[in-house]
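U., I forgot to send this yesterday:
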Amino acid sequence: MRSRIWLLVAVLPLMVLAGCGGGSAAPPPPVVSISILSSQASVPAGGTASFAASVTGTSNHSVTWKVNGTTGGDANVGMIDALGRYTAPMLVPSPAQLTITAVSQADSKKSASATLTVTLAVAPSSAWLPVNDPTCTQAFAAIGQGAAGLDWVLKVNGAPADPSYGAIDASGVYTPPAAAPFPPRLNVTAASQADATQTGSATAYLGASGPLVDQWLQLTPVQLGTSGGNASDNSGNFCCSGTLGALVTRSGTNFILSNNHVLARSDLGKIGETITQPGLVDSQCGSGVDNIIAKLSQFAKLKGHPNNIATADAALAQVISGQVDPAGAILGLGAISCGIPQPAPPANTTIVPAIGMPVAKSGRTSGITCGTIAVVNVAVQVQYTNTCGSNAGFVVNYDNQVEIDSTTFSAPGDSGSLIVDSQTAQPTALLYAGDSTSTIGNPIQDVLAALADPTPPHALPTFVGGGTYAVATCSGPRSGAVAVNAVRLTDQEIARARTAKENHATTLMADPAVVGVGVGESDTPGEAAIVLFVDKEKTPGSLPLLLDGVKTKIKLVNRFRAFAAACPAGRSREAGVPLR
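Result:
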């Protein structure tokens, strides 16, 4: 009897502990919750929108994305990838309002949804037209419209425009007025006749000012010299773009030619990545409408070369069938019509760059411009960013480069532009870097050699184009091209200076203030000079006046940088955000 009493006494404390929640009971599982982050309520047909999901209560933050209940979406309602990037269909679905859903992979019973409306888009997204010329019209087209008709109207600040803003017909052809109204900007709006709530609009600028055509969304097949770049060229709060330079062909396949840092994200690109027109900085960092026109196929590496001397900043993207003008037309390179330089292909033969050569280029930021090659055979240091918009970066050395001395020839975003001899339209260099007073280009022969077919017989790309001709914009007193010197340097004089430059370039560039050394003209007619590019923010050591009997000439510059354009994500260049 006594033993039973002791047993009962021993068990009672355990029962009390259990009743008080003592250490044996597991805590309740955390509650998984999910929400969707997006500030975008609508997207134009063919455009993109980005969604993000916030998952709490679990270490597994992965989600499954759905459109109208279908995982990944479909061709009718649009597609969404694993990262939440939604791509709208080319036709506005019915109904146009969609439900985007994120389902937690940790707990499939937990989800969150957002609505998104697909709208019409109008292309081109902008137009720049002269006034007082009824023959200068612009045809607009709606993207996303099905079989139903369209009503076209002109608006200013959302209100119907009066006749002083011109007229638009039922097919979308706009005719500008006889005089520029104020403000000289209007909206061209298309509305579906089947559903008046379905609208899209573009902007028209009247007179002699307005944004450049090189930055606008084009109807396919697109012409080159236009805004473009890698669809993945964004990082943190920035997105980046450059210029799609020219059309080349190799072994029967057509490619877009541009820079490595434009198409291949400064060596970070993967073969097959998407190339768009316009680039991210001109499509609201990818949330606006763009054309998917090519896939990255080859690039010359910037890093990993002996002595860190790269051959060229160059890359190729294989054209998607039907997406690029097969004639290889470049914006602004042709004749002037209605006061606007028209597109034209370059010559299909190349020319070696030379001191004093008048040149032209068509680029995303500054459009069609003219200049003169001032310095050749340049050894130069160029700064790159590690990723789009980053303050950290790396330096690449080049040799045998081309320098154009001008404050107006190029600007950030013009990287990838083809530089041609303006008297013959023959390609001579590929623009990739500069500062506010200089443009730096790779000689075109080095570019093509760097992009040889990796498989035998290692064919080089050739330009899609035609015969030689003079670039109309660069003819006459308003061309912007400046002759360097009326007395042409002899081959012997250039060779003398080149030898002296090669003998001393390494020693000169050991000075941290010297960022480039090349061969140009001296202030004495007929004499060559060794041009020293000196960082204006640094004090150089003692620089010689003569090198092997050749005069030196100093040009103060900012450090040369790869000329891509960067824009903060979620903002557009029209909002006044400076390009970097």
